[in-house]
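Dear support,

Our group has been running a series of protein-ligand predictions, and this particular one with iron/sulfur cluster is the one our PI (initials K.S.) wants archived with full inputs and outputs. We had some confusion internally about which version of the output was final, so please treat the block below as the authoritative record. The input we submitted was:
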Amino acid sequence: MSKKLPEYGTINVPTERGVPFGAITPAPVVQQDLFVTSNWRIVRPVIDNDTCTRCLTCYIACPDSCWAYDDKNDEMVWNWKFCKGCQICIHQCPAEALSPVAELDFPDGVHRLEKPF
Ligand code: SF4
Ligand code: SF4
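Confirmed final output from the archive:
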């Protein structure tokens, strides 16, 4: 089952600003709770573990490092605190294992901070 992805144009990135192929940005070692951004989210990515192939594309694609592989349970785990619901992982998942589900469909939906930034 292959998903047809839209074609995008390219931009010329100056060499000095290029990112080496295969580079990754590690998640922060210490989570900074003052920077919890999950209350931006209107949809959350929901995973179908039976469909997921553990290809790690979502881990690479998420700009906020919200996906990680749990090798004990052999499953991808999602960090709800920093997911903004941008849906990049959903669009990039080659197995179509991720679906956008409205945040208000969850009993704990739309996490609100006790105080604004
Ligand atoms: S991109 Fe999709 S198939 Fe790959 S690990 Fe993430 S959810 Fe699973
Ligand atoms: S919806 Fe965006 S922020 Fe949330 S896990 Fe997917 S890529 Fe990361």
